[in-house]
Design goal:
Elements: H1 2-21, H2 24-34, H3 41-49, H4 54-66, H5 74-82, H6 87-99, H7 106-114, H8 119-127, E1 130-134, E2 140-143, E3 148-160, H9 171-188, H10 192-197, H11 200-207, E4 217-232, H12 233-295, H13 300-325, H14 329-334
Antiparallel strand pairs: 1-3, 2-3, 3-4
Helix pairs in contact: 2-4, 4-6, 6-7, 6-8, 9-11
Length: 335
């Protein structure tokens, strides 16, 4: 009893191994769908040995051949899968581009997929353009030549540029370039009224710059969705400049006042210094007179004559001072 059961188990295990490595169902499906020779049993066994999912490969080959893309072989699809590509996305993108008459070959499609781009989404965007807001949130503010701030927001309609998808800039670059163009358009206008009266002036100005060069998109249109008037930046700047000029003038006046005060203090110090020199010189007069007495160059009569002259000079000064101040009535009353 043991020997037949073991034998049966070995046969069942062998059949499971054979049917795993030889997917007869997929082979028959391939023959029915695309004909004999397109998907061979050897191809399916090789896929199992390479750890390639045969179901994904067979479905993709069948879809491509049914869409008329018979030049794509099983080996090409396998190579792309082994390189890390997304085979279902590539097959869908090739079928969609062929139906939409968009030039896209297998090599370019796989290169786009291996570069990390969503090739299926790129083809969809090429067929059905998408709208990008510039900026994504809020508005862009720029100042016209008359000093009035203008706030604008644009909606950019783009479609995928398939030849430029490999190595081309993304939609962030489109948003940045459109924002720069809007700021330049508003800044070059003579008045904010021109922008409000004719918003398509901004669109024409931006479109003429060729902002989609070197990007993965082609700009179809730029529509100004919103335009608002902001604050009077020119008046604020003039007011700030006037205030700054006032502070500068005050600082300069304060500097001149400080210099004048310093000069006055310097002159006061010089006057005090000269007075000190006069006092010092006057202090030397008695010493010189005593020296003259000792040497016999000055007599007692000469000394008295000098004192009389000083007294007369002092009396004249006193009289002249009283004359300037007015007569002293108190002395007359006493007399």
């Amino acid at each position: 009893m043991v020997t037949p059961l073991v034998l049966l188990g070995i046969i069942v295990f062998a059949l499971l191994i054979i049917f795993y490595f030889v997917p007869l169902g997929l082979w028959i499906q391939g023959i029915v769908s695309v004909g004999v020779g397109k998907i061979t049993i050897i191809d399916l066994i090789r896929m199992r040995l390479r750890k390639i999912p045969p179901r994904v490969m067979v479905d993709s080959i069948i879809n491509l051949h049914k869409a008329g893309l018979e030049n794509i072989s099983t080996g090409m699809v396998e190579t792309h899968f082994l390189a890390g590509g997304n085979v279902p996305n590539v097959s869908i993108a090739l079928i969609a581009s062929d139906k939409a008459r968009i030039p896209l070959d297998f090599s370019t499609c796989t290169a786009i997929d291996l570069a990390g781009r969503d090739v299926k989404g790129a083809v969809e965007t090429s067929v059905y353009p998408k709208v990008i807001d510039a900026p994504v949130n809020g508005t862009l503010a720029a100042v016209a030549k008359d000093g009035i701030e203008v706030k604008a927001r644009a909606r950019v309609t783009v479609r995928t540029n398939i030849p430029g998808l490999v190595g081309g800039a993304t939609d962030e670059t489109i948003i940045a370039r459109v924002g720069e163009g809007i700021v330049s358009a508003i800044g070059s206008s003579d008045s904010y009224k021109k922008v409000l009266e004719n918003p398509d002036y901004i669109s024409k100005f931006v479109l003429e710059k060729g902002l989609d060069a070197g990007t993965a998109f082609e700009i179809l249109s730029i529509d100004i969705a919103d335009v608002d008037v902001g604050k009077n930046v020119g008046a604020h700047l003039q007011a700030d400049q006037a205030e700054a000029d006032l502070r500068v003038a005050q600082a300069r006046a304060e500097t001149r006042r400080a210099m004048a005060v310093a000069q006055e203090q310097e002159m006061t110090a010089k006057v005090a210094e000269m007075r000190a020199k006069v006092v010092e010189a006057e202090a030397e007069v008695p010493q010189a007179m005593a020296q003259a007495f000792r040497e016999g160059n000055l007599g007692i009569m000469d000394y008295y004559s000098m004192k009389n002259i000083q007294s007369d000079t002092g009396m004249r000064d006193a009289i002249s001072g009283q004359g300037e101040e007015g007569p002293d009535t108190s002395q007359g009353n006493d007399g």
